[in-house]
Structures are given as structure tokens and as C-alpha cells.
């Protein structure tokens, strides 16, 4: 079985679509409900390194305490401090993050996951909003 992990928020449509695309390969990933089980600081640092992403680029603003905490003030917040606040308020971690043997990505939009899934899609897939992503032959549209 191919090890795949998704840092998932079931309330997020992008996260649900990404999970469904992974399952459309026939693989059941390890699902980390990161709001309940945030990654450790070391895990978060490793995820960022694997994605080649800055701490600030992973911050989520919408629906979070980003503005209330003044996180837009770049002179006030070091990467170390941002990591700490992200772990204190995991809703600040953008999602979904997917880890596969072929790469780690923040999957926004959800079809980014196809870039790191070297497994065939088993059938057609349409996002929750009605946008087709995979055709009946399992090919990306």
C-alpha cells in the first residue's frame, strides 16, 4: 500500500475534494485532523521544507485570528514566532497538505494533488462545486 497522508479539515471544501481525489486512486490515506492533532513544531518545519515553502506562505488568513493577532506586521513576527502561533492556533495552517512518496504539497486548488499522485485515477471525478477534474477514462481534464 502506498503511504499517503493528508492534513485535513473536513469543514473545508478544498480539503474534502483533495481527499476524494486521493481516494479515487483506490488508496485510503492516513487522515490527520490537524485542528485536533496539530503537527509538532519539528513536523511543521519538515513539511515546510519538503514543500519548499516559507512559514508566512503557509499562513491562512480567512476565518482565522490572523488579523486579530496582527500577523501581517512582518517586522514583528519571526518565522519562529509564526510557527509557535500556528501551533497554538492550528486554524492558521493552510490546508490541505498532502504527503506522498512523490512529494509534499499544499493542495490549493485541490487538483494540485494530482501532481504528486503517481497513481491512476480509477474513474471520473467532479468537485463539489460541479467542476469536472477527471474524465471517465481517469484522465485529467
Show the helix and strand layout.
Layout: E1 5-8, H1 13-23, E2 30-33, H2 41-51, H3 55-58, H4 66-69, H5 79-88, E3 97-100, E4 103-106, E5 125-126, E6 132-134
Parallel strand pairs: 1-2
Antiparallel strand pairs: 1-3, 3-4, 5-6
What do you see in this structure?
The longest helix has 11 residues, at 13-23. The chain contains five helices and six strands, in the order E-H-E-H-H-H-H-E-E-E-E. The mean pLDDT is 96. It has 141 residues and is of the alpha+beta class. The strands form two sheets. It has a four-stranded mixed β-sheet. Strands 5-6 form a two-stranded antiparallel ribbon. The chain has two domains: 1-34 and 95-141, Glutaredoxin (3-Layer(aba) Sandwich), CATH 3.40.30.10; 43-93, Glutaredoxin. The protein is elongated and about 50 Å long.
The shape, in one word, is elongated
Please state the structural category: alpha+beta
CATH class division of the largest domain: Alpha Beta
The radius of gyration is 16 Å
Report the strand count: 6
CATH superfamily of the largest domain: Glutaredoxin
Number of helices: 5
Spatial strand sequence of the major β-sheet: 2-1-3-4
CATH architecture of the largest domain: 3-Layer(aba) Sandwich
Strand content: 5-15%
The major β-sheet equals: 4 strands, mixed
Q: N-to-C terminal Cα separation, in Å?
A: 27 Å
Number of domains: 2
CATH fold-level label of the largest domain: Glutaredoxin
Helix content: 25-40%
The secondary-structure element order is EHEHHHHEEEE
Mean pLDDT across the residues is 96
